[in-house]
UniProtKB/TrEMBL annotation:
<dbReference type="InterPro" id="IPR008972">
    <property type="entry name" value="Cupredoxin"/>
</dbReference>
<dbReference type="InterPro" id="IPR011706">
    <property type="entry name" value="Cu-oxidase_C"/>
</dbReference>
<dbReference type="InterPro" id="IPR002355">
    <property type="entry name" value="Cu_oxidase_Cu_BS"/>
</dbReference>
<dbReference type="GO" id="GO:0016491">
    <property type="term" value="F:oxidoreductase activity"/>
</dbReference>
<protein>
    <submittedName>
        <fullName>Multicopper oxidase family protein</fullName>
    </submittedName>
</protein>
<dbReference type="Pfam" id="PF00394">
    <property type="entry name" value="Cu-oxidase"/>
</dbReference>
<keyword id="KW-0732">Signal</keyword>
<dbReference type="InterPro" id="IPR045087">
    <property type="entry name" value="Cu-oxidase_fam"/>
</dbReference>
<dbReference type="GO" id="GO:0005507">
    <property type="term" value="F:copper ion binding"/>
</dbReference>
<feature type="domain" description="Plastocyanin-like">
    <location>
        <begin position="67"/>
        <end position="180"/>
    </location>
</feature>
<feature type="region of interest" description="Disordered">
    <location>
        <begin position="28"/>
        <end position="53"/>
    </location>
</feature>
<dbReference type="Pfam" id="PF07732">
    <property type="entry name" value="Cu-oxidase_3"/>
</dbReference>
<feature type="domain" description="Plastocyanin-like">
    <location>
        <begin position="213"/>
        <end position="315"/>
    </location>
</feature>
<keyword id="KW-0560">Oxidoreductase</keyword>
<keyword id="KW-0186">Copper</keyword>
<dbReference type="Pfam" id="PF07731">
    <property type="entry name" value="Cu-oxidase_2"/>
</dbReference>
<dbReference type="InterPro" id="IPR011707">
    <property type="entry name" value="Cu-oxidase-like_N"/>
</dbReference>
Amino acid sequence: MMKRRRLGNLIGLLVMVALIATACSNPETGNQKADKAETAGENLGQPQISKDSQGRTVKDFTVVAKESKWQIAPGFNVDALTYDGTVPGKTIQITQGDRVRMKLLNQMKEPVSIHWHGYPVPNSMDGVPGVTQDAVAPGKSFTYDFMATVPGTYFYHSHHNSADQVDRGLYGAFIVLPKQESYQYDRDYVLMLDESMNCGNMDHGNINHSNMNHENHHANLNMDHDTMMKNMYNVYTVNGKSGSLIKPLKVKKGERVRLRFINAGYLSHHIHLQNQEVQVIASDGNEIKNAPTIKDQLNAIGPGERYDIHFVAEESFAIDLHDGTSAAKNVLVPVQVEGSKESALKPDQAQLPTLDLTNYSKDSEKNLDHFQSTFTLHLNSSIVNGSQVYTINGKTWSNTDPLPVKKGEKVKIKLVNEGKSDHPMHLHGHTFQLLTKNGKPVSGMINKDTLVVKPGETYEIGFVADNPGIWMYHCHELHHATTGMMTSMNYENYKSTYQTNLNNAHE
């Protein structure tokens, strides 16, 4: 995950934050499933298809990491880091059972990698420099090669200095279609959420985003970390665009539509499909069986999370964000139903409840029990040498205690947020079940790989240790990971073909 860095001086950081806050301003105020996922820009990767010696379908992709100019909104352009020149990169869509080969060619001036966020790849393909591979140096390439064993909505992003590289655009959707679909749909859209900074004359591309991570405990500023981040990241985007550049989603009356929401940013967002009956049919790529229909409830999506939402198109409407920020007002996604009157494009100011996922599923399948290994992780923050760090059990990476597990055993982890910030905790290589929230059992079966733990909350999660390796477990508010909130889960007797050096691991 992360290379251990010397933390910057707090006073200098606060001066920089003050300058940014002053400079920043908002930009312009059927039964047949879909053939392909669309990103409203039709940015779909085109593979070369062949058969391997075992008769398996092989899909070969090539992506080029490079610096590119990118327009986010009228009059707002940035120096982006991209896969293939776009933000997000091309949607990589395959079918369960395919063999995936992705060649990453680095044309940037700095190293890069690809991590398959949420996907249970073999450990050697996880894309974490210092843990599973060396970062891909400028002018070099690396080929990721694995089987698509499970379906769902995932994404890929750099795991080298990711607080900076992902922030500047190195991410894209990774969609694995199932062999047999449970929820039938006619149209399929991918919507990747992110944030950016419009800072006047300050160049977004020249800001070191990895250091914007500190709460202030000493200076007399009435601003905590979450408030600071919302003030700095004052432009919200959908598929790399904001305001009038957000493209409408076009559907036909009566079509069943699947929306795949992916949060590639730092902030949690609250999605609202205005006046629309919907089902939340998947969380982090994992199907929610017998999903109830809801209306005018917000779907909270934290950094690194994914939610699939299903609805039947009847009348045109808009998708907006209820985040309580001025930036959210510039995210309005038109859903245009052919032959229907166009909806008024304006944010919905109504106070709406947020869906409680722990009480949503009606699946009666029994949760895991009888665990062989249990761990408790206390999430917090502290000041070290005048700078903010984020801790697990009072320690920062690379001094955090690893979680030792054995293949095949059932593992339970208790997550206790004792701090003042949200912590979207992401486990590599595994899917876990939500067991309890604040001591109360979760109803139904909810499986995830990223879980937002809010201040004062306690969750218990469980999973089977079925994917041997050395796996990172970290906060996906990547500024928190950069300053310490990471650990690893290490399988007993695992022999890596790579010479792991956790002290040099990258977030």
